[in-house]
Structure formats: structure tokens, C-alpha cells
Amino acid sequence: MPPHDQSIGPDTKLRSAVSSTRVFTVPSGRPFLPAVASAVLAGDLPRPGGPRPDPLDLPRFTILLPTRRAARALQEAFRVASGQRAILLPKIRPLAAVDEDLTLLASLGAPHEAAWDGESIPPAISEVERRLVLTELVLRWAKAMRTAGDPLGPYGAAGAFTPAQAASLAKELSRLLDLIESENVSLDGLAGLVPAEHSAHWQKTLEFLKIVLDWWPAHLAERGLISPMERRNRLIRAEAQRLAADPPEGPVIVAGITRSIPATIELIQVVLGLENGAVVLPGLDQSLEETGWAHVREHPEHPQYGLADLLSRLGIARSSVGVLPASEPDRRASMRGALISEALRPATTTHLWSQFIDKADAGAIREALDGIALIEAPTSQDEAEAIALILRHTLEEPGRTAALVSPDRLLARRVANRLESWGISVDDSAGRPFRKTVPGAFLDLVIHAASRSFEPAAVMAVLKHPLTRLGRPAGDIRRAARALELIAFRTDYFGRGLDGIEAATERAELQVASRMRRHQAVMQLTKRDWDAVRDLIRRLRQAYQPLTDLFARKDPQPLAKFVQAHVAVAETLAQLPDDNDSGSPLWQGEAGEAASVLLASLLDPALVAPQITATDYPDFYRSLVADENVRTSLPAHPRLFIWGLLESRLQCPDVVILGGLNEGTWPHTPDTGPWLNRPMRRELGLPQPEVRIGDQAHDFAQLLGAPTVYLTRAEKVDGAPTVPSRWLLRIKALLDGLGLRDALAPDRPWLGWARAKELTDPVP
After folding, report:
1. What phi and psi, each to the nearest 5 degrees, are found at residue 322?
2. Confidence (pTM)
3. How far apart are CA 559 and CA 548, in angstroms?
4. Cα–Cα distance for residue pair 740/732, rounded to 1 Å
5. What burial class does residue 524 get, using C-beta atoms within 10 Å of its C-beta: 0-12 exposed, 13-18 middle, 19+ buried?
6. What digits encode the pLDDT tens for the residues 650-699?
7. Are 447 and 618 in contact (CB under 8 A)?
8. Would you say 566 and 599 are in contact if contact means Cβ atoms under 8 Å apart?
């Protein structure tokens, strides 16, 4: 049998037979959400060929989707499919996103929720509390190992272990707990995981894990809380029980699921057991021959692994899945899908490429690749510039939409900044890193200056920040800061702390009075400038008093004391003049509100938090906010988007740019984490890290079905050579065998235009 016996010639057609299990798929190359909306309005869901629903009957439909963004997009798809007229919408509910990592800000701003309310289910513990409690446990473990003289502490030598490192380990531990609960894995075999041939370090790690896994449920029960994943599982199972006990009159449709946890499997089984239940899968590969499909479940990194595992758990054969009516791909889309499927086939069956090459229609494949272009930029800056040009060019055609999809957040920020320089505000779904926002950077600079004993660079960074006012008008505080820099720091400076700055100022004043040689700028300062500098130092001393008192102590203190002092200093530095009653700008805007919520949560007296020293607090604080992002609600362009991988699922813009296609970025390098190695995960029944690569590969393959696709990567990032993504290498290898490498040539000289920006003559 040839590797793609149904997809080689130009007359290829996929099956569209009615599925007895009422499980359908929308093939790659067809917009998923519009296809679902059209099928519902045409009467083809939950059963093909059914009567068109009356407009008043649509609210009886229930459609469950994997993400909130997909739920919002489906509402728009219904509006378009109905001919832009007002309609009553079905009940569109998002399932809890399986792969969405909880963050501190997300769990505080909007408590973890699933699609349904569960009044009888306890609330979930906040991510802040969980992170701090687990950090305290890790620190106690490290202390016990140090006391016992054990050299096998985490991060190497036990003496180098810090609270910031403990917070990082706690974050990984919380991810492991989430994974165990999501997969509903039994931990009865935990004790026998480490055989004699493994390192003794793993045995000690498992001993700690057993303590945590025994103690953690008891701690949650004492607090009247449950874990976020357990709450999600209970909510989903409660909905499944409700549907089974009291089947609704209207249809129930689960759409867009690519890989499921046991709780979602139970819900899908209940839905399929309903008379009007149906499931719609995105991009099930029905062109891959049975030999290749049989090997898919051996390769977690394969794009179809999640769907193959889902069908296996449901007991449904791939041949039983029908194509959703009216979503059959045309000849070109079918050929493109077959090519991508062949390029990404399981690694153990790539020897079948030769059969595909022998029988493939090169002309049809070239036609199918029309609209896909590869741009390999010399640097990441050039890549961002070219992407921004493509997005800007898309706006020249009315109604055309475009999206950059990439897990590379630095690339996304560069593109967004370039578009802003043209006056185009774009929706970046991941938001902006908290430490890059105005309040976030200010809070970091405040604690940095104290931790560095007020060295010149740290002090001037605080004084030049726009939030620093110290109760003075902006012009006065900036002028005093410039004068302080000239007087104390534009010469040899060996002082430490605010006392050193004050001593340097007095010494400079004596030098000027005695006509000693100083810079002309210092000699020209007026008495008003000198008075302003002395006043500035006095105000700085008063503002920083809470932190300097704590930093003078060497013994550990409660975390809340440091947070309280940090907040007090920041508020005093940002204090506006007395006659201004508009409030402190530190807590204003989305970023300010996020900072306020986060710091207030750390001050909760009921919070179990570790005691730390002053030298540990700056790094500990940064470890807590390192992965936090702030999503803004500013108006954005309605036709341009920047999405992460989760947000891009089920979306269908006209132009898709897949950016950052380098190995290690997209896909990410698989990481087992510090708590369990691969053999341990396998013996416990936990999925291997490559499952995430399979999810990303499915996103990649689905997005390649868009009408216009640009694949971009940088040959060097920060001066270091990069390796192309494994998916790009596979596509190139297959096209080389077909003699079609030039089929991916860009349609316009985007890179030349991007580099031409640097060739403009300077404007005087």
C-alpha cells in the first residue's frame, strides 16, 4: 500500500460518510469554527441531514469548546454564518484549558473556574498560597539535608541553596501535582520507583515527594480548599453526571478537543451516549495510511498523537470518524494536508517517503504550496521587522485579517513595538511581562537600589523613573536628580549607602567652596540646586527607612515584613505633591492593579510563607513575578493579532505568520523537571514531556492550512547560530526529494525591505 493511497493524485477526496458514533472532523485547511457554526445552522449537527433549527431553537444547543478565546470566536462565526443578521446564540461554554499554566496574577484576578458553577465544590487554593506553602516545604527539606550533612541537596551543594531556588522548585512541584491530578494517576507505586542502579539523589527526592503527597491533601482539607486541577476535574465530572441524570432536550456538542484528561473523557462519553450528542475533532489526519497510523501512539511528539490517544480511550476507530458535512477540503487543500501529513509522519516510518516521492504529482504539490513562503532572516531583529511589514501590508486590503503565532515572547514584543511606531496597536494575547510594565519595573528598581547599598547606577535608575516624585513636582525632582548625579557620581565615588551619598555631597560642596578643580557643570550649580540635592537625599532617607531597617538585620524575617516595607517605600517614592488628590499612579492602570492585587495577597496574615533574610528577598521577589504577564484592555486593531499557541487554536485568519521556528523555541526543548526522571514518569503512567511537542506540532500542522502562511525563523539569535525547527527540516527534506525546494520562495522581498530601513540617509 502506498503511504498516502488516498491523497497522491489530483482527484483525492476524503471520506464524508455519516458516522454512527456521531464523531466528526473538520479537515486541516478548512476553518474549524465557521464549519461548526455552518453545520449547526444547516441542521448537520448533531446528525447530518437533519432539519434546519428554528432561530428560537438555537439557545437549546450547548457547544463546549477548549478555550475562552475559541468560545468568543465561535460567537462571531455564528454571526457571519447567519448572514450578519442578529440571532439567538447557542449556549457556548469553554472547558478548562488543559495545558494552560496557572499564574499568580491569573489565579488572583479571576479564580480558577471551569465552564460550570459548582456551589457544593470547595474553592481552589490560590496559586500564591500554593507556591509559598510548597516553597516553605522545599526550604525545610533542604535544611534537613544540610543538618544531616547530606551533600546531595538540590541544585548541587546544600550551602548554595536559596529561597529563590526553592521558589523555582516549588513552581515545578506545583506543575507535577497538577499533572498527577489531571491524569488521575495512582501513586501507590511511588515507593518502588527507584531501583538500585539509579542515583541515591532520586531516592531522597522520592522520599520528599511522598511526604508532600501525603501532607498536601491534609493541608488543603484543613484550609477547606482543594487544588485547582481537582476543582476542575470535579466540575467537569459534575456536569457529566448532570447530563447523564437529566439529559437536556437540545443537542450537546463537544468541539475542538485535541487531547483530553480522564475527566474530559468521561464527559465526552456521556455526550456521545446522549441521543443528540456529537463530537467534532479538529484536523484528524485521514490520509495517513494504516501503517503510519499504527505507529502514531508510539510517538508522543507526533501531531496526531493526542487525537489518536483520544479515539483509543473512547474506543472509536479512525475509520468511524466522518468529515463534517460541507467542510470537505478542495483539491488544493487536500493535497497540502497530505503533504504536511507525509512530512510529519512518525519517525519510524519515514522510509516510506520514497514511495510518496515516486507516486506524487509534483505539479499538484507545487500548486498546493502556493500561499506558503519561508523567510529565514539573518537575525531576530530582521525577522521581527519582516513580520511587522507583512502585518502592515495585510491592512492594505480591506477586511483581510492576519495573525502572528509564536511562543517566542521576545519576538512578539519586537513586532508589537514596530507596529506601534506606525501607530498600529495590536492585540498581544499573552500580555506584557509584569517586570516590563511601568509599575513592575519601578518595584524592581526600588528593591534593587536597597539591595545594592544605593550604588550610583541603582540610585539614578530609581530617580529617573517617571513614577519617582517624592512629593515634589516632576520638574523639580528631575532637576535635583541631575544635580545629584553631577555632584556625587560624576567623579570618583567609593561610598556605600545613603550615608556615602551624603558624605560625597558634603565633600563636593567643600571642594567647590575651596576652588578645588571640579567639572564646570558642578561649578555652575546654584544655591537652589545644592539645596534641592540635600532635600532629595533627606527625602530618599525617609522613604527608604523601612527597607534600610530590615536590611540592617541579618536574621530571617517573615516575608510579609519585607513586602510591607517594599510597598511603603514604593508608595513614598511615588507620592505626588500634597495639592494633588488624584491618587498614587503606582496602583493605576492594568499593571498597577495587578501589582496591588499580587502584593496584597502576599500580605495576607493567613498565608503560610517562609522566613527569609534581607539579602534573599530581592531574588525571591523576582522569582515570584518572573513569569507573570499583564494583559491590557487598550483598544487594538480589529484585524491584526499576536497569539500564543493556546490562543491560536481553532482560529482562522486570512494570513498566518508562524514565527520563531527554531529548535528549542518552537517546539520547546522537552524537560522532565527536577522531581521525576523519564523512567519514573513512565512507571507511574504519567505522559512524557514530548506530549507537549505533539500538541505544538498539531497547532503547527493546523495553521499551515490557512490560505496564506509565512514561516519565519532567525539564523542567529543574540549572535548565536540557531537550528531550524524539526518540522521545517522535515518539510525541506521532503521537498528536496520532490525537487520543489523553490516552492517556498517568498512572494515579495520582505527581507530586503526590512534591511532597507537601515540604508536611509540620516536626517539632520
Report:
1. -100, 160
2. 0.88
3. 15
4. 9
5. exposed
6. 888 999 999 999 999 999 988 888 888 888 888 888 998 999 999 999 99
7. yes
8. yes
